[in-house]
Design goal:
The complex is a heterodimer of chains A (305) and B (325). Helices cover 72% and strands 0% of the residues of chain A. With 305 residues, chain A is mostly helical. Chain B has 325 residues and is mostly helical. Chain B has a two-stranded antiparallel sheet with strand order 1-2. Classes of the chains: A mainly alpha (305), B mainly alpha (325). At the A-B interface, helix 6, helix 7, helix 13 and helix 15 of A face helix 1, helix 6, helix 7, helix 10 and helix 11 of B.
Chain lengths: 305, 325
């Protein structure tokens, strides 16, 4: 209760109420997240169950068009699945991969940044060298290479089976340096403050100080980059899936839906590409807008890479 | 300065060794050079003999050493699909990608600098608001969606521009296949380069605007106004010059990222460049070509980064000192 009343008086809530863009995008985002988490309940059809769809329904246009079918509001995809249901399930896959990848990134990056910033010395320069090196190679290239290698190593069939955890690991491993740098920069700032010295004086060892005292004070900057990182991870996932290195078409994410639709765009089936594309853009846009707002409000001194 | 350069070069050599180790392990575990050479129709006994002759039964580190030695000589193995040296295949595909990147950079410079400056000078005008809104939304649109939208609009509906391939090309100097010299080739360049630049434009417009606005606040600009200089002179000679330095730095970094996005753009437009070749190599399990591409891209990145860092070290002494202690 105390936390709630503190939150009610906080500047965060105040500025949220006075920013229509923030309100709008958080509403859209929560609707999208709820729909995707409740996919089995909300979606008209279960797209993972092959018995519910018929290849004869393939490429039915949206229901308001001439050849449309009332059963499929947004039409069907190339396999005859209801496009709306497929999109809802696809959004769920994108969301899971995006959040999972960010957790992996945050775990690696925070650990490295914390140790490197707090302990300093040789370890710091070694870890930061690694970070620099990975930072110098664009993360998308790393992700594309990693997924290509995994695909060859596992074989296509097995890769498609394991696609979700593999993509989480791939995107997680390709994009952690930003966390390491940001956390290190804020740890360096916190380390000099008196509360850390006080903790040391009462005889706490390194780990409790790092974990219990320094880490919570770096949370602001972690929170701000995390929102943007989720958007980036969703985009990377879509890019990988579009290249055919991500989710298979049997369990499509938004990216692989767009890929499958693109092959049919010349025959006039624009809706298979259009609707997932719009959904993807809206999803990324609202996360980015929220991230911008959060950054302006919390205003942490972010490490500019 | 000398120590800085040496340190930087040693670092890049280490990075190259790591990349080559990754590449070699891939080849060692996934690729099958015997299949690459003779195909599937050879008895196991003969296979074993070829393996022995090629030294594939040697310990890992000897084979790795041999791989590095060959790589230094420019021999990165044979491509299984093309039946040619992998490096040769990559070099034959490079011009397409490089030309795409050149045209994209030109579009970027022509569009982002004027609009960035305009947005900084007149932040309240309609065009500026429009440009800022565009750059907010533009960040959220993946490059392949822009590309598909352009193809659908100009390729399918309006039928104005060709939407895939490179069109007619002319050979320059025996190997550089250029699309710059024919009308058809130029027409094929339009859509891919616009979609590739769309991913970078928002960032650059914002960056130039922010830098320019910051510079316009400084005291020497106030002084320039006070002197009664003409507006154009203050804007373009005094202010703009000082926004350029950070912009050039970011441009250098973004060039690498643009390279990553060429893989996506080339896939959509079936542009016969290095990225398209790479994805084909993945589909065909052409391991040698894949590893060769990995090594080539690694070399390009390490070279560019090292050169940029060294130039930076010369311009800005703080970078040199930061690394020492």
């Amino acid at each position: 209760m105390k936390a709630w009343s503190r939150f009610k008086k906080s500047y965060l809530l105040y500025s949220f109420k006075h920013d229509p863009i923030a309100i709008f995008s958080s509403v859209v985002l929560s609707i999208l997240i709820t729909i995707s988490l409740l996919a089995p309940v909300v979606a008209p059809y279960n797209t993972y169950d092959t018995s519910t769809f018929d290849i004869m329904d393939a490429e039915t246009p949206p229901s308001w068009m001439e050849e449309g079918n009332k059963n499929f509001i947004l039409g069907t995809d190339i396999q005859g699945r209801c496009l709306l249901s497929t999109m809802i399930y696809g959004l769920r896959v994108s969301l899971i991969i995006g959040c999972g990848a960010v957790l992996v990134q945050a775990f690696i990056g925070i650990l490295m940044g914390l140790f490197s910033g707090y302990l300093g010395g040789k370890l710091d320069s070694f870890l930061m060298r690694i970070t620099d090196i990975q930072f110098s190679i664009p993360y998308l290239i790393v992700a594309i290479f990693a997924s290509a290698i995994f695909k060859l190593a596992f074989g296509v069939g097995r890769y498609e089976e394991l696609a979700v955890p593999l993509l989480i690991i791939i995107i997680g491993l390709s994009h952690w340096p930003i966390y390491a740098r940001t956390v290190r920069a804020s740890v360096l700032g916190e380390k000099k403050k008196e509360y850390v010295e006080a903790a040391r004086v009462i005889g706490l060892s390194h780990w409790p100080i790092m974990y219990r005292h320094v880490l919570p004070n770096t949370m602001t900057s972690i929170l701000v980059i995390s929102t943007i990182q989720v958007a980036e991870a969703v985009m990377s996932e879509a890019a990988l899936s579009f290249l055919g290195l991500g989710m298979p078409i049997t369990k499509p994410s938004l990216g692989s839906l767009i890929r499958s639709g693109f092959e049919y765009i010349f025959s006039g089936s624009w809706w298979i590409t259009f609707f997932p594309g719009v959904l993807l853009i809206i999803f990324i846009l609202v996360i980015l807008l929220l991230g911008d707002w959060l950054r302006d409000v919390l205003n942490p001194k972010l490490y500019k890479g | 300065m000398f120590a800085f350069i040496v340190r930087r070069i040693i670092q890049s050599i280490i990075v190259m060794l790591v990349i080559s180790l990754v590449g070699f392990s891939i080849q060692h575990h996934i690729g099958d050079p015997v299949r690459d050479l003779v195909g599937e129709r050879v008895t196991p006994a003969e296979r074993e003999e070829i393996r022995d002759r090629l030294g594939l039964n040697d310990p890992f580190y000897i084979q790795y050493f041999r791989f590095v030695k060959n790589a230094c000589k420019g021999d990165l193995g044979l491509s299984f699909f093309y039946k040619k040296p992998a490096l040769e295949v990559i070099i034959s595909k490079a011009p397409a990608t490089i030309e795409l990147v050149i045209v994209t950079s030109i579009i970027l410079i022509i569009v982002s600098i004027p609009s960035g400056i305009y947005c900084a000078i007149y932040p309240k005008r309609l065009f500026s608001r429009f440009a800022m809104a565009f750059s907010t939304i533009g960040v959220a649109i993946p490059v392949f969606l822009t590309a598909i939208a352009l193809i659908y609009l100009f390729g399918v509906e309006l039928n104005w521009l060709p939407s895939f391939g490179r069109g007619e090309t002319v050979k320059i100097g025996g190997w550089w296949e250029s699309g710059f010299l024919t009308w058809d080739g130029l027409k094929h360049l339009v859509l891919p380069s616009i979609s590739l630049s769309s991913i970078m434009l928002p960032l650059f417009i914002r960056l130039i605007r922010a830098e320019m606005m910051e510079v316009l606040e400084t005291e020497y600009i106030q002084f320039a106004w006070a002197k009664g200089l003409r507006r154009e002179r203050v804007w373009f000679i005094h202010a703009f010059k000082n926004t350029l330095l950070p912009v050039i730095t970011v441009f250098g970094v973004q060039l690498g990222i643009m390279f990553a996005f060429t893989i996506l753009t080339e896939t959509v437009f079936q542009w016969q460049g290095m990225g398209f070749m790479f994805l084909e190599a993945v589909e065909r399990s052409d391991t040698s070509l894949l590893v060769a591409y990995l090594v080539v891209v690694g070399v390009i990145f390490v070279l560019v980064n090292t050169v940029v860092d060294i130039i930076y070290g010369t311009v800005n002494p703080m970078v040199r000192i930061a690394g020492t202690k």
